[in-house]
Amino acid sequence: MKHLTYLSFLLLVLVAVPARPEEKAADSRLQAKPRTLHDKDFFFRVPATKDAWLKRRQAVREQMLVALGLWPMPEKTPLNPVIHGKMDRNEYTIEKVFFASYPGHYVSGNLYRPKANGAASTPRVQKYPGILCPHGHWPDGRFFEANDNAVAAQIKQGAEKTPEGAKYPLQARCAQLARMGCVVFHYDMVGYADSTAIPHRTGFTDTEAELRLQSFMGLQTWNSIRALDFLLSLPEVDPQRIGVTGASGGGTQTMILCAIDDRPAAAFPAVMVSTAMQGGCVCENCSHLRVGTGNVEFAALFAPKPLAMSGANDWTIDIERKGLPELKELYKLYGAEDRVMAHCFPQFQHNYNQVSREVMYNWFNKHLKLGLAEPVVEKPFQPVPPKQLSVYDAAHPRPADSVDAQRLRQYMTEQSDKQIASLVPKDAKSLAEYHRIFRAALRAMIHDEWPGADQVEEIQKGEDEEHDGFSSRRYLLTRKGQKERIPAVAVWSPDFDGTAVVWIHPRGKASLFQDGKLVPTAKQILDRKSAILAVDVFGTGELSLDKPPAVDPKYAGFTFGYNRTLLAERVHDILTAVAFAKNHDRVNTVHLLGFDKAGPWVLLARSLCGDAVARTAADFNEFRFDNVRATTDEMMLPGGLKYGLPALAALAAPGELFVHNHRGSGSGQWLKAVYEAAGAKDKLQRIPEKVTEEKLIDWLLR
To answer: Other CB atoms closer than 10 Å to residue 315's CB: what's the count?
Structure first.
C-alpha cells in the first residue's frame, strides 16, 4: 500500500472495509422484525394542540386515501339501483337492492324502511335518519343463521335475550333500527351472500395490483362510499343524520369510511378499534395504510362527531384503558369529551350481540336525535329466512354485464390511467392540482417528508483528518428519536466554498474510491472547491443486507401496510443526508447526485426536498415501474405504476434538474409539461442516452 497517500488509505478503510458485526447491527432496521397486524403497540399519540392535530389529521386521511387507491377519488358512475321485493313487517318493510358501484360490479343488500305509525299505506313525509350497516366475516354474511347449539349458548350466557336475535343477530340489528325510525341499508361484503362474482380474498394480491394500488380493501371501501351514495339518494333520508355501524370486519369498514368521508354524523364500530390486532383479512389491509398509524388514530379522524365503540374478550379487551383515554384527550381539544365512548364486555367473545347492540341503539338515539325514551331495548322481531333475502330472482336476475376481478381491474386501470393523465398541468390552476395530488401521493408512498432542521442529527463523528490537500470526517446520521444509523463520510478541500454535493451510489460511500484512489468524478468535485457527502443508504455499504427484506408471500399488503419498502427506506435516508448537509453551518448550497440504479432513488427524494436542493443530476437508468415483476424487487413501491416515476420526479420543478439515460421511460410528457407550467423549462435538461460523469459534474457545478 505504499503507493497510496495517507488520506486515500484512511478513506479506503472508512468506506470500503465491511463493518464489524456490532457496527452493522447498530441500525435497528437491520435486526428488527417487520411490523405486522398482530403487533400490540399501535398507540395513538395525541398532538398537543388542535392546530397540530388538524395538520396530522389531513396527512393521515391522505395516506389512507392513497393506500386505498382512492387518491384522487374515482369517477362516480351512475348507480342505476334496482329496488324490489318489498316484505311487510308491520312496523317496517324490507326490500331487495342491487346497484353498480363500478360498471359491472354490483353491490347487493337489503333496505329496511320504517312505516309511519306502522301503516303501510301512510305516505312518507318526514325525513328519517339513515344507517349504513356493513357486516363482518360471519358465515354467509347477510344470510347468517346460527345453529341451535349456538343459539342456546348465547341465551344461556346472557349475550342474547330472544331465540330470534340469537339466530339472526345481523337481521336483529337492522330490524330494531328500522323500528326506531331509521332507514337502514345492510349490504354485502365482496364474496358474501349475493356478491359472488368475485370470491372473498381473491383477485387483488398480485404484483401489478400492488403497483396500481388496487386492493380488496380499496374495493370494499369504494362499495361503502357508493352504498352511502345510494342511501342518501333516497328522498326520505335526512343527509344530516347518517350513522354507520358494523362489527369485526364491518367495524373496520365503519371506521375506515367514517375516517375518509365527511357525510356520516355518528359511528359505532364494534369490536375492532384496538391498539392490538388491526384486522386479519386482505379486506382489512392494504399497502401503506398503517405505516406510522393504526386503528385508534383512524377512529380519531371522526372527531369531534359522536363515536362509540364496543370491546369483548378479543383484541379489543383493553379498549377502555388503551385507546379510549387518548380519544378522550383528543375530543377534549374540541371541547367534546362526551361525544366519545367505549364499553368492553369481557364476559363475551368476539361478537355483536344484543348487549352491545343495545349500547349502539342508545348511542344513535341520542346523537341522531331519534327522541325515543331511554333505555332503548331490542324488541323481538319476525326474521326472514335467508333465502328470501336474496336480491336476485327470476324476475330480477344477476345483471348480464356482471364482471369478475380481472375485468373489473381492467376497468379500474383504464379509468385510473385516464384520470392521472388528465392531471398533466397546462396552467397555474392545473399545476396546483397536480402538486396537491402527486405530492400527497409521494409522501404517503415514502412515508416521509422533508425533515425539519431539528429532526436530523449526527450521533457519532470521527476526528477531522487532513492529508494531501483534502480533509475528511466520518459520521453516523439519524432522525431524532429513531434508532437508525446511516454511515456517511464527508470530504472537502481547504478552499471549500460552501457547496456540498450529496453523493448517492448503489455501492454507497465505497464508490468514492477505486484501487485505493479517489475516483476522477470525486476528484473533479473537490477540485472545484465543493465538498462531498457520500452516504450508505439502507441496503448499501455498511447497511448492506444479507438477503432481501421478507415480504408476505400471500399478500404484500400484510407487509407494506405496516412497513416502508426497501426503496422508501433508501429515499428516507437520502432525505436525512440532504437535511444534514443543508443544516451544516459551513454549507450554503446543496446539490444532489444519483448514479446508475440509484438515480430513481434520488429523483423520488428530490421531489420531497422543496428548495433545500439547488441542482440535481440523476441517472433515470431507463427505469419503469411496469418492469417490476415481484413484490420482493428492490424497486417495489406500491402505487409506483399508478402515478409513475416521471410524474413523481416532476415535483422537483422549478428546481434545476438534469436527467439522463431515460430512453423508454416515458419521462418526456410529465417533466416537460410540469416544468413549462411552472415557468421553468430552462431549468430542465433531459438526455436520452447515458451521460459521462464528467459532463454531469460540469453541469452540476457550473
So the answer is: 23
**426 grid coordinates:** 397546462
Residue type at 593 in one-letter notation: L
Task: Report whether the peptide linkage leading into residue 139 is cis, meaning its omega lies within 30 degrees of zero.
Answer: no
Strand order in the sheet with 105-114: 82-88, 92-102, 105-114, 183-187, 128-134, 237-247, 266-270, 307-312, 340-345
What φ, ψ does residue 604 adopt, rounded to 5°?
Answer: -65, -40
* Contacts for 341 with CB less than 8 Å, ≥ 6 apart: 307, 308, 309, 324, 363
Q: What's the CA gap between 295 and 185, in Å, rounded? A: 24
Cα 662 to Cα 529, 634, 645, 678: the distances in Å are: 30, 19, 11, 22
Asked if pLDDT for residue 673 goes beyond 60, the answer is: yes
Give the amino acid at 521: T
| Residue 669 exposure: Cα atoms within 13 Å on the Cβ side | 11
72: preceding bond cis by omega (within 30 degrees): yes
Q: What is the mean pLDDT of the chain?
A: 94
C-alpha cell at 642: 399508478
Q: Whole-angstrom Cα distance, residue 345 to residue 170?
A: 19
Please check whether residue 364 is in contact with residue 177, taking contact to mean a CB–CB distance below 8 angstroms: yes
518 and 8 Cβ atoms separated by less than 8 Å:
yes
| Residue found by looking up cell 330490524 in the block | 175
Dist CA 29 CA 26 (whole Å): 9
Please state the rounded mean pLDDT for residues 84-88: 98
* Distance from C-alpha of 89 to C-alpha of 381, rounded to nearest angstrom: 9
Percent of the chain's residues with pLDDT above 90: 90
HEC string for 229-263: HHHHHCCCEEEEEEEEEEECHHHHHHHHHHHHCCC
Bridge partners (DSSP) of residue 111 are 95, 185
Note the Cα 475 to chain centre separation in Å.
Answer: 33
- The mean per-residue pLDDT over the stretch 166-174 comes to 98
Measured over the CA atoms of residue 617, residue 618, residue 622 and residue 627, the dihedral's sign is negative
Lookup: cell for 89: 313487517
Q: Is-contact 278 43, C-beta < 8 A? A: no
The whole-angstrom separation of Cα 483 and Cα 516 is 32
Q: Residue 488 pairs with which residues in a beta bridge?
A: 475, 535
Span 500-513, mean pLDDT? 97
Structural domains of the chain in order of their starting residue, each with its CATH number: 6-32+445-700 (3.40.50.1820), 82-412 (3.40.50.1820)
Closest CA to 15 of 574, 522, 527, 516: 516
| pLDDT of residue 7 exceeding 60 | no
What DSSP string describes 467-485? Answer: ETTEEEEEEEEEETT----
Average pLDDT, stretch 332-348?
98
Buried b or exposed e, range 582-611, using 16+ CB within 10 angstroms: bbbeebebbbbbbbbebbbbbbbbbbbbee
DSSP annotation of 688: S
Per-residue pLDDT tens over the stretch 451-489: 987 899 998 788 888 866 889 999 999 999 999 999 999
Identity (one letter) of the amino acid at 441? A
Q: How far is CA 125 from CA 152, 182, 240, 416, in A?
A: 42, 14, 16, 41
Closest-CA residue to 458 (of 478, 474, 488, 482): 478
Question: What is residue 169's three-state secondary structure?
Answer: helix
Does the reported pTM lie above 0.90?
yes
**296, exposed or middle or buried, with CB in 10 Å at 0-12, 13-18, 19+?**
buried
Would the CA dihedral through 440, 262, 285, 409 be positive or negative?
A: negative
The partner residues of 87 in beta bridges, in order of sequence, read 94
- Across residues 355-379, what is the average pLDDT? 98
Range in 14-18, 278-282, 478-482, 671-675 with the lowest mean pLDDT: 14-18
Strands 92-102 and 105-114, by their bridges, are antiparallel
